[in-house]
Amino acid sequence: MELRKRRRERVAQRAFLILSLSSFLILLTGCFGSKMTTSGGGEVTGTGGRTFTEPTPYGMTLVKRGHLKMGIEKQDSLWGKNTPVRDISVEGFWMDETEVTNSKYRQFVYYVRDSILRERLAEIDETYKTVKTDKDGEEIGTFINWKKSLPRKPSEDEQEIIDGLYVTNPVTGEKMLDYRQMNYRYEIYDYTAAALRRNRLNPQERNLNTDITVDPNEQVWISKDTAYVDDEGKIVRETINRQLTGPWDFLNTYIVNVFPDTTCWVNDFPNSDNEMYMRYYFSNPAYNDYPVVGVTWEQANAFCAWRTEYLLKGLGPAARFVQRYRLPTEAEWEYAARGKDQNEFPWDNEDVASGKGCFYANFKPDDGNYTKDGNLITSRVGIYSANSNGLYDMAGNVAEWTSTVYTEAGVDAMNDINPQLKYNAAIEDPYRLKKKSVRGGSWKDPESYIRSAWRSSEYQNQPRSYIGFRCVRSLANTTSEKAKKK
């Protein structure tokens, strides 16, 4: 525990130092090989350094920065729902070409399973863990040794540990993974909170108005998300308010059960025979390329954190430039869905089918006739044409989580540059504060709901058989194409 605490504090301190100008100058000097010269004849010529070209992330496409009139300009008199409209601008970003599939999400679940298994095997075999040190030889901490293969012919003790991850159906005798144990722990450093002037460790830096005398003994209170497993094995999640003591106070800890709720198929549709989907949709390889469903907003965020961790393990020094995976903001999602011509739908016209009767998306085209578009429930991702941004299924198939908290005010309450409304609701918060914006409409929704500007919502802990997600990643290099041509 002491080693883990020291490691967390060291990580947080390093992250916090990046925010300071002095550390940034040291980084430039130490990492890029800059040095003082007089070769410019006494003129300031700027520092040099090695440039970084960000490779295209696997399965993602670039959505270039641009402008959007966000919202529905022609208000829908049928539904009587007023959607705020506003001109906004967004920075470029990478976005998944398709929704996250069962296959990709299952890889996440298996990673969590195997990490838990290795941790438990390490209690009887120390070769399942490894001790890492920094460049000075100081011990950083003890980690899972992923190079160590799991036993093909386990001993009796090893088999007992492996069996502990599974449960047996008392009726059928079927052996199943115990979903209750599939808990993923991750940490996110809140750079935004750490950068706020009111949260500066030095009281003199909290107010730049020189007419105001800053009280050096003023106490700053911050909110911090934390999670741990109690003595009974239960996950305890809470948001604590405490006085600011150091940079590690902005390191938030989460523990999330990541197994999707496969029962959503029968809970979302009572008086309907959907048992087959409940039993096989996530586990059967026949559905590998279908979008994962039954995943909450909290689980989608955990997937983004794991995907970032998984990526950084495979990168070298360039890892420090790469941004983390995350859910798109509501503005980013709509901007990407509308395409380069900012259409009402992700395609080029206001119709939902071609003249030959071929539909452009998987949705509910008629009252009760789900199969009119060729599908009953979800469809394989990417079987319909991509929009002009190279993105598939931005209308229909499954609706998608965004990172934005849902309010009726929508974009009216946001900034007009990279707009976002963010609130990480705590367990103890009123349930009404836990609504997140959902975009795109789904396989069960009519035509009106699959428009790019249509807004809906769901509670962050509520899994649905018609809601999935896709990831985005901010650009590490934001140079515009126009600037490159000059």
Please give a structural write-up.
- The protein is an alpha+beta fold and 486 residues long.
- Helices cover 21% and strands 19% of the residues.
- The chain has ten helices and 18 strands.
- The protein has helices spanning 2-17, 21-32, 102-121, 156-163, 191-195, 264-268, 275-280, 297-314, 330-338, 481-485; strands spanning 60-63, 66-70, 86-90, 93-96, 129-133, 139-144, 166-168, 175-177, 183-189, 221-229, 235-243, 251-257, 325-326, 399-405, 435-439, 455-459, 467-468, 472-474.
- The strands form seven sheets. It has a four-stranded antiparallel β-sheet with strand order 1-4-18-13.
- A hairpin with a 6-residue loop joins strand 7 and strand 8 (175-177).
- The longest helix is centred in the first third of the chain and has 20 residues, at 102-121.
- The protein is globular, with a radius of gyration of 25 Å.
- It starts with a helix and ends with a helix.
- Mean pLDDT is 86; it is low at 1-6, 11-34 and 480-486.
- How many DSSP H or I helices? 10
Beta-strand fraction estimate: 15-25%
* Poorly predicted segments: 1-6, 11-34, 480-486
Mean pLDDT: 86
Instruction: State the shape.
Output: globular
- Compute the gyration radius: what is it? 25 Å
Termini gap: 55 Å
| Biggest beta-sheet profile | 4 strands, antiparallel
| Secondary-structure element order, N to C | HHEEEEHEEHEEEHEEEHHHEHEEEEEH
* Helix/sheet category: alpha+beta
* Helical coverage, percent range: 10-25%
Strands side by side in the biggest sheet: 1-4-18-13
Number of β-strand runs:
18
